[in-house]
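We now fix the convention by which a protein and its fold are recorded. Think of the row as the fold of the chain written in a discrete alphabet. Here is one such record, which you should read through line by line.
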Amino acid sequence: MGADHLPIDEFFVRLADLFDSRRKADHGSVFLTQKRLSHVGIGSQDLDSSPGTKKLPDQLDDLHPTSPLPVLMRATNGKSKEKKNEKIKLSTVVQPDALEAFYARYADVCKLGMQGLRKRDRSGRKKAKAKKRKVGAEGEKRV
């Protein structure tokens, strides 16, 4: 694992803390992402191919992997660039043989973190939309 990636147990502890801090703040977001980790070391690149040449699809190493690839899991509180010092970024790498157990625990942590969520108050948007329709309908009658 890289220096930035947390062990899986630490990732779950800090993810639960991230959900708790969001719940206590009464608002905010938690962004969860996952992607296949297909980074291959620099030594595996073709030395004779120049950067301007395109590889054919059968020459791409990660389209047909010889073994299952690990998954990179990320979580962040989504703070903007202006509040960069408040941004929390978590990541871990899950090996293919540990995916089922990871997803079971991940689902439990996410469910617990989402228990206190409230539905968005969209009444202002609905009222504005209704007002717009009413004004639009009156304009059609006058013509």
Notes: Residues 18 and 46 are 42 Å apart (CA to CA). The mean pLDDT is 77. Residues 123-142 form the longest helix (20 residues).
